[in-house]
Amino acid sequence: MGLQARSKQRKLQPCPVPSAFPHSPPPLGPRLRAAPSGLCPAHALTAYRHRQCACAVPGCGLGGSGLAVQRRAVPCRPLEQVATMPVQLLKFIKGKLETQLPSHLQREDLKQLQTGLDHSNKYFQDTFVVAGFKVAESPTAREDGRHACHLQVSEEAGSAIYICTQPSTSPFSETTSASVAPKYVYTPLNCLKDGTVVNLYGIVKFFKPPYISKGTDYCSVVTLVDQSNEKLTCTLFNGNLESLPKIYKNGDIVRFHRVKIREYNGQMQGITSAGFASLTFDGTVGAPVVPRASSKVYTFIDEEQKTVEELRIWAASNLSVPGPEAKLSDVKPMMFFDLTCQLVGKAKVDGSSFLLKVWDGTKCPYPTWKVPVEEKELEGDKALLHRLRNVTVDVLAYDNHVQLAKSLKIGSFLRIYSIHTKQASATNEDISSHIEFHLHGGTCYGRGIGILPENNADVEELKTFLECVDLTDSQNMENMSSLELGDTFDNYTDLESPLQRCQQLSATVLTDHQDMSNTMLKTVLNSRAPQQYRIRAKLRSFKPQKLYQSVKLHCSKCNTLQEVPDGDAFDLILQGCAATAPNPELQSMSWYESVMWTTQEEKERKITIHFVKHYEMLQRPENTLLMIEGGTLKEIWKLTRRFKCVIPVKSKEDDLELLDLSAPFLLQGNIKYYGCKKCSNPKSIENLSSLAEKREPSWEPTEIAQVLGIELLQYVFVMKFTLVDGTGALNAYLFDYEKFFQIPASEILTNSFLQQKMEMTMNTLSPPGRKLGQFAVLEGDKNGKDLLVCCYVCRVLEFSLHLGKNQK
Fold first, then answer.
1. Distance CA 162, CA 573 (A)
2. CB proximity list for 500: less than 8 A, separation 6 or greater
3. Which residues pair with 93 in a beta bridge?
4. Which residues of 61-70 are buried (b: 16+ CB within 10 A; e: fewer)?
5. Taking CA atoms, which of 289, 393, 708, 800 is between 20 and 30 Å from 412?
6. Contact of 787 with 513, CB cutoff 8 Å
């Protein structure tokens, strides 16, 4: 709440309302009026953040909510502050609290309150007195059941808050604490309603292990079912991995508290809300009912244990959860399965893949792929790795799984979900085919890595089994000296060298045309399209040498390419538009609110920002689309750091309109979106209101472009590769850049790290200063229109080559 608690036990002391509040409430409340001239841009942003009132903010008082701020934008003066706190009546009968507090609140001593900590689900129970307040009607009384009035306090009105703490040993404190034991109500899945926050039990039918979302939070997706046979898919976010449900397999039973229900496309969905917490239980009938909690403090009573056991029995009789789990001894080529195993070694392979050496005590019936890595890169007990060399397998984790794979501890027990086994044929006649194990990037089909605790039932069973595995054939390895051990590993790596050509690491795995043999480029060049080939070649050269020049803008409608305009051209367009003053009659319409101010520069300039509303209300900045008139390029970039989308506009007589399409029509983050001048037919800017009327506007660039009549230009890489194999040379043009570089072309111009990654990729394929014989080998399929090429060096890369229909 931001109160500076200076009170002592049994002593009243005034605690003034603070002059600034650390949290910005959701945008509910009065319209945002234009700021007077002379207000700087920083003040305008502050006015946006604080110009809202009567909204609940967690962590305030007994109800856990109720702090809000309302401010007027006034130049060169402190902004006015008004705090509103909801009033809820609590009854005490004989020292006991009759009215139950919200179940998610946890009591905390006032003396223990600290700044910088999250108090959103805390409350303190002491006596406090409010003086100098005003009473106003509560706009949310019908929805949240609180008192019909709010108390308004402000520093200007001379309001004060007095707090009197109670001794921790007082009977009042003890009896009240004991009486706040929550009683939860659980909602069946067939009784869920849109917009409600519920508690529920369910059986896991499908789940995605937690993964890092596009932001900084972890995300997990869970599909639940219960005795009503209704399904509910929940998308759960949290910045702390430990706060997400600890689900290990389908069939687990979960208890979710404070899940928000929303309807989307006719289906109910669940998302996390304030105070979300979970318990997870093994779904096996007869297994101990031991909760895996996402928080340190939780309640679990005997009645709920019966609920878990009833769900187990129902699931065993009515729910088939055919898990794809398998042991290494059961694997076959071209299958996907879950593996429970122990990690005995790991190594970095390259920037997009990571090696995990695992075993489960059984032996794969096929020869397995041994990934060639340098000895210094391999972590783990070398003696143990050598003893287990015949029963371990190498699993390559890609892309979004790499970060978690790096953090795994040697010896930990894992469940790896949706491993792909691929059979690869060796080109050397002395070497037989082998099995490769891949954990592909993404989260489709539940792909991911789960860390199992030592007390997990499956881990205990696996540990018992591993202890019984007979490894006597190589026991003498334990007594070898470190020198002998190093020699052994050097020889072991040498034995792998004949396989390296067919066992290269892959960023993506080709699953098509495995039965095709390689064709020489001479044959390809002498054929007519369409034909289908598989080729193996080397990259002799590529253009442009300056890789940033390969980024172009492509129109999929007229199939034209154009250069990406530089920032100076955009800035000149903005300067030209700033010469025309904004039209005051176009401010604060029904679907947007406006703020205008005049800069204090030598040459005065008027800037207007129009905030698009959602259901007559402003959204949080990170969800807000705004339009700006009169801003400079520097000012626009500042706005993109805070707001979801920024659209530069200018005033005409009766409406706002987009700038010339030589300028970007939309900026989102550090990406500028352009429209095709030839194919676009710009429509009224008012069409944005149709997107704002959606239940949850996403403000996706494609949707914005569509309603504005803009044909969106896509960022692409355009490069010319010259491929050779000793029989001929083939010029190939790279278009399928996402598969090849695994880098979004829209970000390469503004991200130095991605530029370095792209440069490293090309230096690997075509090393500067080396002879052609040392270059990387490329292999792939060609069908006349599209040529899918795999570059075998440290990983496999894919791209498409566009050829004319009748070209050779």
1. 57
2. 372
3. 96
4. bbbbbbbbbb
5. 289
6. no
**pLDDT tens digits along 592-634:** 888 888 887 777 888 999 999 877 777 788 888 999 998 888 8
Q: Are residues 173 and 51 in the same domain?
A: yes
Q: How many CB atoms are closer than 10 A to CB 674?
A: 25
Please say which residue of 440, 469, 499 terminates a domain. Answer: 499
Under the banding of pLDDT at 50, 70 and 90, the label for residue 317 is: confident
Tokens of 145: 């059941």
* Domain boundary pick from 318, 349, 366: 318
Does residue 697 form part of some domain?
no
Q: How far apart are CA 269 and CA 384, in angstroms?
A: 47
CATH number at residue 793: 2.40.50
Question: Is 510 a member of any domain?
Answer: no
Token pair of 752 as six digits:
């130095």
Q: Which two tokens stand for residue 42?
A: 């920083």
CATH number at residue 302: 2.40.50.140
Distance CA 316, CA 287 (A): 13
Distances (CA, A) of 348 to 357, 378, 670: 12, 8, 31
The whole-number pLDDT of residue 491 equals 36
Q: Which domain holds residue 585?
A: 567-685
- Structure tokens belonging to residue 160: 């004060």
Reduced to 3 states (helix: H, G, I; strand: E, B; else coil), residue 577 is: helix
- Count of alpha carbons within 13 Å of 256, Cβ hemisphere only? 32
Residue with tokens 């109670």: 166
390 and 488 both lie in a single domain: yes
Same domain, residue pair 297 and 205: yes
Count the neighbouring beta carbons within 10 Å of the beta carbon of residue 481: 8
Establish if 808 belongs to a structural domain: no
DSSP codes, 725-748? -SS-EEEEEE--HHHHH-S-TTTT
Residue 518 parent element (H or E): strand 518-519
Q: Count Cβ atoms within 10 A of the Cβ of residue 702 and give its class: 0-12 exposed, 13-18 middle, 19 or more buried.
A: exposed
Give tens-digit pLDDT for 493-540. 333 333 333 333 333 344 455 556 778 888 888 887 667 777 777 777
Examine residue 111 and state whether it is found in any structural domain, yes or no: yes
Verify that 543 and 639 share a domain, yes or no.
no
Examine the domain organization and report whether 363 and 490 are in the same domain: yes
- Select from 292, 291, 258, 262 the least CA-distant residue to 275: 258
Q: Are residues 101 and 144 in the same domain?
A: yes
Q: Are residues 579 and 680 in the same domain?
A: yes
- Do 454 and 344 share a structural domain? yes
Distance CA 625, CA 618 (A): 10
Q: What is the mean pLDDT of residues 363-381?
A: 87
Residue with tokens 């409340």: 29
Q: From 607, 610, 587, select the one nearest 692 (Cα to Cα).
A: 610
